[in-house]
Design brief:
Blueprint (H helix, E strand, L loop, with lengths): L2 H54 L2 E2 L1 H11 L2 H20 L5 E10 L6 E13 L2 H69 L5 H35 L9 E2 L12 H11 L1 H21 L6 E9 L1
Parallel strand pairs: 1-4
Antiparallel strand pairs: 2-3, 3-5
Helix pairs in contact: 2-4, 3-4, 4-5, 4-7
C-alpha cells in the first residue's frame, strides 16, 4: 500500500467514521434519556391519579352508614313531629274548659211609667266536665304519646334493617365482581395457552374457538356483575339521601353468623322487643279509653253562670 493511500485512510476515512459513531452515540443517549423522561412522567401521573382516587374513594363501615341513615332519612323527623303533636294533644286533654263571656244589649220597658230604657248585661259561663270523662280523655291521650314513641323506635329499627340489607347486598355484589374478574383472567390464560398450542399444531382450531366463546361469556358475566354493583350502590346512596360520594365504597367482609337461632327463639324475641307489636297493644288500650270517654258523653256537662244586668 502506498503512503498516499495510508494518508487518505488515516486522515479522511477514519475521522469521518469516528465522527459518525460519536453522533450516533449522542443521538442514542438523547433518545434514551427522552424515553426515560416520558416513562417517569407517565409513572408519576399514574401515581398521582392513583393517590387522588384513593383520596376521593372513601370506604364506609356499617356503623357509619347506619348513622347516616338515621340522620338523613326523612322518616325520623316525621316520627319526631308525630310525638310533638301527640304531646300537644295530651296537654289539651289535661286542660280544663275555658270560661265563656256573654254580652247583651237590649231595651226594657218600665212598669211604672211605661218608659223604655237601654239595658246592658254581662254573663260568665264556666263548663264543668264530669271527672270520669276527663280522666278517660287524658288516659287516651297518654297512650297516644306512647304509640308515637313506639312508632319512632320502629322507624329507627326499619332504617337499620334496610341499611344492613343494602350494605350486605353491596358486599355480595363486590364479591360477585371479584369472582367474575378471576374467572375472566383464568379464561384468558387458558385461551392464550390454547392459542399457542394451536399455533404449534398441538391442538385443534375448534378448541381455540370454544375457549374464545368461554372468554366472551366470562366478559359478559363481568359486565353484568359490575352493572349490578353500580345499581346496588346507587340504591344505597339514594336511601341515604344522596349523602355519599359518587365513587364511594363499603368496607367489610362477608362472614357466616356466629350463632344460629331457632324459629321459636326468633318469634319470642320479636314478641318481646318488637316496637310495632307494642304499639298495637297500646293502641288497643287507647281505643278502650276512647270508648269509655264516649260512653260518658251521654251525661250532660254542668254549666255555672254568673250574670249582671245594668239598666
Amino acid at each position: 500500500m502506498s503512503s498516499l493511500q495510508k494518508l487518505y485512510r488515516t486522515h479522511l476515512f477514519y475521522p469521518k467514521q469516528n465522527y459518525l459513531q460519536r453522533r450516533l452515540e449522542v443521538l442514542f443517549k438523547t433518545i434514551t434519556l427522552f424515553l426515560c423522561f416520558i416513562s417517569t412522567c407517565i409513572s408519576l401521573r399514574g401515581f398521582q391519579a392513583s393517590a387522588e382516587e384513593n383520596q376521593t374513594q372513601e370506604k364506609y363501615k356499617i356503623d357509619e352508614l347506619i348513622e347516616l341513615a338515621i340522620e338523613k332519612n326523612p322518616s325520623v323527623p316525621s316520627a319526631l313531629s308525630n310525638i310533638d303533636i301527640a304531646k300537644g294533644e295530651l296537654k289539651a286533654a289535661k286542660a280544663f274548659p275555658n270560661p265563656e263571656v256573654e254580652f247583651s244589649l237590649d231595651r226594657g220597658k218600665s212598669r211604672e211609667d211605661n218608659s223604655s230604657k237601654a239595658e246592658f248585661g254581662i254573663a260568665v259561663i264556666q263548663p264543668i266536665e264530669w271527672p270520669l270523662k276527663r280522666l278517660y280523655r287524658r288516659k287516651a291521650a297518654e297512650e297516644k304519646v306512647k304509640i308515637t314513641e313506639f312508632e319512632k323506635e320502629a322507624v329507627r329499627i326499619e332504617l337499620i334493617s334496610t341499611t344492613k340489607q343494602l350494605y350486605y347486598a353491596t358486599l355480595l355484589a363486590k364479591k360477585d365482581v371479584e369472582i367474575a374478574k378471576q374467572n375472566l383472567d383464568t379464561s384468558k390464560t387458558l385461551l392464550s395457552i390454547i392459542e399457542r398450542r394451536v399455533g404449534l399444531g398441538e391442538s385443534r382450531e375448534l378448541d381455540f374457538i370454544k375457549a374464545r366463546v368461554e372468554t366472551l361469556k366470562f366478559e359478559r358475566e363481568l359486565i353484568r356483575a359490575e352493572t349490578n354493583l353500580s345499581a346496588v350502590k346507587a340504591i344505597l346512596n339514594r336511601f341515604l339521601g344522596n349523602s355519599l360520594e359518587k365513587d364511594f365504597d363499603v368496607d367489610g367482609e362477608l362472614t357466616p353468623p356466629s350463632t344460629m337461632s331457632r324459629l321459636e327463639q326468633i318469634a319470642e324475641k320479636v314478641a318481646d322487643f318488637n316496637p310495632q307489636l307494642k304499639a298495637q297493644t297500646v293502641e288497643v288500650k287507647r281505643a278502650g279509653f276512647s270508648i269509655l270517654e264516649q260512653k260518658h258523653l251521654i251525661v250532660p256537662d254542668i254549666f255555672l253562670r254568673a250574670s249582671m244586668i245594668e239598666k
